[in-house]
Amino acid sequence: MAKIRFQALLEAGSRKPIKVIENIKRSELFGKNVFDESTMRQYLTKDAYKGVMNAIDHGTKIDRKIADQVSSAMKEWALSKGVTHYTHWFQPLTGATAEKHDAFFETIGGGIAIEKFGGNQLVQQEPDASSFPNGGIRNTFEARGYTAWDPTSPAFIYGTTLSIPTIFVAYTGEALDNKTPLLRALQAVDNSATAVCKYFDKNVKKVTSSLGWEQEYFLIDQALAESRPDIILTGRTLLGHSPAKGQQLDDHYFGSIPGRALNFMRDLETECMLLGIPAKTRHNEVAPNQFELAPIFEEANLAVDHNSLLMDLMGKVAARHHFKVLFHEKPFAGVNGSGKHNNWSLSTDSGVNLLSPGKTPMSNLQFLTFFINTIKAVNDNEELLRAVIASASNDHRLGANEAPPAIISVFIGEQLTKVLKELENVTNGKLSPEEKTDLKLNVVGKIPDVLLDNTDRNRTSPFAFTGNKFEFRAVGSSENCAKPMKVLNTIVAKQLKDFKIAVDHLIDTKDLKKDEAIFNVLREYIKQSKKILFEGNGYGEEWAKEAKRRGLSNNKTTPEALKAKVSKKSLALFEEMDVMSKVETEARYEIEIEEYTKRIQIESRVLGDIAGNHVVPTAVRYQNLLIKNVTGLKEIFGKDFEQHAAEQLQLIKRISVHIEGIHAKIDQMINARKKANVLENVEAKAEAYCFKVKPFFDEIRHHCDKLELMIDDELWPLTKYRELLFTR
Ligand code: ADP
Ligand code: MG
After folding, report:
1. Which ligand 1 atom minimizes the distance to the CA of 214?
2. I need a labelling partner for 669 at 20 to 30 A (CA). Which of 34, 302, 326, 351 fits?
3. Domain membership of residue 311 as a residue range
4. The whole model's pTM is what?
5. Residues lining ligand 1, CB < 6 A?
């Protein structure tokens, strides 16, 4: 094996020079391959431009004539850039992106060929979609699905293909993708938030949700990564002993970026610029060979598309640099895993960030309204929020010994905790003039000052307020952000809707002034949301106990966590907010629970294969060497040989113990799998895989990792952690 490892390094060393566009400012590259507003202005007629902009800003329909104009302009633009194909680009429920390329090229008879792209092809396509996960939707209804243009996310050129972001729905209208329900959730939060904004500013017409994700990832030498069947097939290592050095010296985080990784990043960022992905920040993360990329935040739908596109792009650019990029939440035991913080806020069409304190008491009351309603929404839906980020891979972070915990809580910092305490004492009903003045001057008026020194950041919190946004930190690195964004925006939409009803009710029935009514409702919300607020250490045992006392959920595994998605409450919530019908919600649940089972099943097979067919034979070979050695010693030393062969004899015995252990556990694991496989009920099956199959992983790994320490490095068949994590 040593030889192959050496070759791998050589190959990595001989990579071709990378293509970085030098001497051009990034701002000049930005969006060059995007059919964005400025390109549209250049290529579209006034009418067509207006039509698209209206669709983007107000959701109006684009008629056939306009669609024809847009498609022909897109084609002209794309051809001028050497594009040959177009595709509807969508995000099916596999979590990845999907594309089916068609050439512009068409023959029109008489040996003549032309380049064609009509409005029809832009607006709607019917990919043969029967192999995408649908959770039974297409068994129940029509078999076909179609993709439809989402003009709110601009078309872009990816390689030599014009890519048109689309939704993907069944013929009967059910969403078969991640984007459709996200768009509905964004509409819902717009409706509810705009209505609430009107208490403070009559001119607000639209509220948009913004998202700034932070993508963590590992960058591993491609040849080394590909020498590991577990990385290739499961995205993570299923065994491997910790290296002598891991992350204990804290010498990687924010350290100087290794040259080869930096070359990759520069190349990647150039591509990002061209695609309009506003990549801004890059740095080393905590674990060796772990890094992060963060863009400037954008409107949530666009940000989600950009994250999906980035993940695909990263794989391609990494290959150019002979790297493999790992998005798995826990590719290596013993060092940090990867997450994807979702920074989220709401802002108005007049440019006001609703989660940023303002300059006047009134704008601060608006801030507090959105701030407290978000806390209440999380309080009431913590279990659903946990459910939406559940996956086999994220289970290694949440609920394991890793950040953040499976318990959802909200961190707001000391200063805002004080503000909430004061608001909690607001008088029930009408406020006295003195109280109003006091609130204005001392509570609502003071917020901007206090936030300035609110530097306290609790890194253990899964959902933290960080000055002008909430940061949902429990999201996994491989997750499609559409899912957490869908849920977060839906629960906040529902909460704001209820808030408006409550405030209007007080105004109408109790004769309260608008701000009095708002104070009254917020006071009650603060009282009702106490259990979700937590400022302490989220990793401690103490918190798990305290959270239990408070009645917070602590669902450590995916099969347990996912159930909250199909609770009566969640089904009703998604229906009420027009985000997902019961059929759609249930279909997603089924897809995810089955995906969980499949992932554990694959890991179990791969582990059985590596342990049984790679590790055990190697152990036997090494044991045979030892036996030969002992036989030789016996020949030389006669009956005294044992005193010279004590170590070897010990080793021979220990190796046998581990070989036996591996065999026994693989047998038991296979039996557990057989039992699980015959279960008809998808939930029972997932639980069997979780609680009956998966526990063998650690046991088998334990034996393998022990053998790794005993066996001659020359013979060991797998690339080791120190090579995967420290090859730069
Ligand atoms: P960190 O959390 O690593 O300390 P920052 O807090 O500076 O970093 O920002 C992290 C991310 O938050 C960035 O991607 C940034 O674009 C995003 N962000 C900043 N303001 C907002 C906002 N109003 N809405 C959504 N995301 C935001
Ligand atoms: Mg962050």
Report:
1. 14
2. 326
3. 186-580
4. 0.94
5. 210-212, 214, 294-297, 343-345, 353, 466, 468-469, 471
